[in-house]
Amino acid sequence: MDDLDYAAERAQVFTEAALQSVLGRMAGPPSTGVCRSCTDTIEAERLRANPKAKLCACCAAEEEHHRLRSHRCGPRS
Ligand SMILES: [Zn+2]
Description:
By secondary structure, the protein is an all-alpha fold. The protein folds into two domains: 1-30; 32-77, no CATH class. The longest helix is centred in the N-terminal third of the chain and has 25 residues, at 2-26. Helices cover 60% and strands 0% of the residues. It is built from three helices and no strands.
């Protein structure tokens, strides 16, 4: 069954690629523990949840707010 072999091979390649991308992300540089935006220290609890956090909770919330706003159409809200 060539088709099955091909499908199995594709599935394996996909799995390996996904694994590599996860490993690559985990191998990235850890957070400095200092907020990139306000240079305040990032909360220990936040770093536990995301060892690579680059913003403190306050700035991250602000950035998320801006990101969500920029996705909406027009200056309505
Ligand atoms: Zn900050």
